[in-house]
Amino acid sequence: MSNIPSHWPNLVKFLEEYTSAIVTKIVLWRMPETGYYKCNTDGVSKGNPGPSSSGFCVRDALRNFLYAESIRLPDGSNLLSEAKALKAGLELCINRHFMPVVMETDFLIMKNVLDNNWGMPWSIDMELKSFNQSRSRGRVMVEHVYREGNQVADYFANPDVHFAAVVISSSTMAKQVLKYQDRFVPDAVQAHNHYKFSMAWLPVCPQWRTLRRILNTSMYNMLDANQQKVKELIAYCAKCSQEGEALEIVQVVFKTNLNLLSNTLFSKDLVDPFSNAKVELKDVICGIMTVEGKPNLVDFFPILKKIDLQGIRHRTFIYFEITERGKSIEEVDVSRLPYLQCIIKETLRMHPPSQFLGPRKVERDVELCGYIIPKGLQVLVNVWEIGRNSTFWKDPLVFKFEKFWNSNLDVRVKDFELIPFGAGRRMCPVSSLALRMVPVMLGSLLNSFNWKLEGDNGPAELDMEERFGLTLAKVHPLFRFFKIADVRVRLQYRFQLIFGWASSLSEVVYI
């Protein structure tokens, strides 16, 4: 023991009394602040320098994926690919109005350079100067995220990832796709093999033709029953008006449509429109639509863009030429209501029932408008983008039903600039029923009642946020706080159309 250095006992004592400092750091992805978007970026270079690529994805404050992109780059360094990812991500957010935005990168060097803590490397001088110039155009924050929280962007930045899908946003190319390319069955729909008995998902075969023929000959011969359901809808609204109850129009219209279909198929009502029973059935149906319609990496679906509508208020007047006071609209009246038809078309343009049509699969290598589409590739038609194409539509982001006044544009596949229900053999099988019933139901509601928001709120206060599923739908039902203000009508009913009201037409279509 005499050979032990004298300072060792003190060292042992120090180690025994030492308590390590525990620092907790959040490494997973965190939601941005309310009102902000978050863009995660990443860059990869194999060999550094070597084959490079960049990727980024955009999400909102509710974790919804809005956009994602993978960019192939020439050979370069990891530093350059990270800078290009930041630049491309911010430019996309500015162009798509995903602002204000939080830009996140897992490259700490880039964070320090942008915060002016370190000098700017000459190799990325041009990219970062462009990034800072774009950054000055709005509220943009740059934050560091650990790799564990940046896995989605890392996936899109991987140069070995090959996406077997192409998105069509041109009406010209959409016409070629919808005429000649068939649809395939997405992975989510095949979960329980029920798709084998559904006309919507069966391939073109004798069974599919038989089911379609039955639908065409049976479902559309229900004129009297359809009109009766509309009268029941108006009667229920009148009851709520007399009792001063707020009316959740989404539930009411859903029950009406459900009874309309159940009478067609089973000759009986499934739901009592005057009862709150069977509400769970709507939740089940909506759940199925949400699951089947969500982006699925198995199917290589692209990420849905957020529909960010402008708060534009547009006023006009519509005169319903109704022979009887408070009369429900009938199908024969629709042809005499051109304004109503224009409003519905404009709503379908801005709010199609679904952003993407059902996917098509290329059965063999084909040439499409000068591009070679390889065999096995999935083709998605972006109806939402076609309806907002500025090369065809004037003021595409503004709701103006006048676009269709004195216009021959038709929803029934005559014009591929307006294809909310698809086209070709795989067009929505009940689109004709929808185009018959939506004007009747909507016109009857407008002609029978005056409407106002609960609490006298203005249309600018309506929550226009939408969620993605098999169909586009509002996160919060647009009519949730509407209630009937007055059941009196005039022979020529003056309807004040505001932007929020007009947008609500698609709420009927969504159901």
Automatic annotation (TrEMBL):
Required cofactor(s): heme
Pfam families for this protein: p450, RVT_3
SUPFAM superfamilies per record: Cytochrome P450 (SSF48264), Ribonuclease H-like (SSF53098)
Keywords: Heme, Iron, Membrane, Metal-binding, Monooxygenase, Oxidoreductase, Transmembrane, Transmembrane helix
Domain RNase H type-1: residue ranges: 40-158
Main location: membrane
Keyword set includes Transmembrane helix: yes
GO terms, molecular function: heme binding; iron ion binding; monooxygenase activity; nucleic acid binding; oxidoreductase activity, acting on paired donors, with incorporation or reduction of molecular oxygen; RNA-DNA hybrid ribonuclease activity
Positions of heme binding: 428
Gene3D superfamilies, alphabetized: Cytochrome P450, Ribonuclease H-like superfamily/Ribonuclease H
Subcellular location: Membrane
Keyword Heme on entry: yes
GO cellular component: membrane
Family to which the UniProt record says this protein belongs: Belongs to the cytochrome P450 family.
Protein's UniProt name: Geraniol 8-hydroxylase
Lineage summary: Eukaryota, Viridiplantae, Streptophyta, Embryophyta, Tracheophyta
